[in-house]
Amino acid sequence: MAGPLEGIRVLDLSRILAGPWSTQLLSDLGADVIKVERPGSGDDTRAWGPPFLAREDGTPTAESAYFLCANRGKRSITVDVSSEAGQAVLRELAKTADVFVENYKCGDMRRYGLDYDTLAELNPRLVYCSITGFGQTGPYSHRAGYDFVVQAMGGLMSITGECDDLPGGGPQKCGVPISDLMTGMYASVAIVSALFERVESARGQYIDMSLLDTQVAWLANQASNFLVAGSEPRRWGNAHPNLAPYQSFATSNGALIVAVGNDRQFGALCGALDLGELARDERYTTNAARLKHRESLVCLLANRFRGRDTAAWLVGLEAAGVPCGPIHSIPQALSDPQVRSRGMVFSLPHGSGAIAPQIANPIKFSRSTVEYRRAPPVLGEHTDDILSRDLGWSADRISVLRKGGTI
């Protein structure tokens, strides 16, 4: 079976992460993604290294690991978007595209004649997605948006990190640019939804995606806690605001996490720790009671966990049906037998002659396929192919554009 988006063409004018993450997902699902890049330098993240991909003999390529994580499966064309000739090239490509994705500042696309209204006149079926830090409307719409800034402004950092009164306490950003990543995921859902709607309406539409909107949207239970109770959520470190015990514990040689989600699991935990009396103690019999008496409960559990090593505890807890797990480093996570058995790490031959390691798409269909047709492209790798095969332009016409610096 082909990918479910086979036959869909995406014109991708996005850079950095939120947009490229979205379009990589569309590519994995079968879409033909044409990545438009600046001649000479390309997507900013190509230079975001080290580390850079190396060939088998150890010689480095120009491809950063950062760029490799978000641009699999795409065809790269270099076009000077700021030039009239380059804008004409992109309008020609937009005529045959199903989706147009961009993350330029508000107003830039209109100034270039590449805004939704202009392109919709050429291609009424076009689904056009703009991704910015703060959206197309509102008092901050003119601001440039960065993941780190949005994590701070959107409330995430206020609930991430250790409590203020503990060593290392204070607001922390997430270890990956999660606002970018989640905006890319929401954008993909929006794009596919608009394509589905187009089946009936035969018309495209405009999608306005904002990093700040997305960050606020996925505050999830933390925002709901505040809206329902009116109390400001706090940082809990590795603990949970609504469940106990649901946190990390130190062992004799490291640490592990325990994730008790109900009273039955708490009873199983007590049995595995040989602390059966706690399961009968009215201070701990229900989750609400455990939250009220969290401090004393955690103290008792922490003392017991320090008595054995991590591996021994994990065997006992798993046998008892208590949700738990080790705290892996990234190398440990990527070499975990479950991760490997699910095919989450693989490699693709790269145009530079190197082999590009990749993290797989987690979607697994029963009939459709996830497609890994090519590694992240070398800058401008497919320029001639796209202009000649997709637009039918002659070699002479392409040569004129290249000599003029348009491509």
Automatic annotation (TrEMBL):
Keyword line: Transferase
InterPro entries: CoA-transferase_III_domain, CoA-Trfase_fam_III, CoA-Trfase_III_dom3_sf, CoA-Trfase_III_dom_1_sf
EC identifiers of the protein: 2.8.3.19
Gene Ontology MF terms: transferase activity
EC class (word): transferase
Keyword Repeat found: no
Keyword Signal: no
Protein name (Swiss-Prot/TrEMBL): Acetyl-CoA:oxalate CoA-transferase
Gene designation per UniProt: yfdE_7
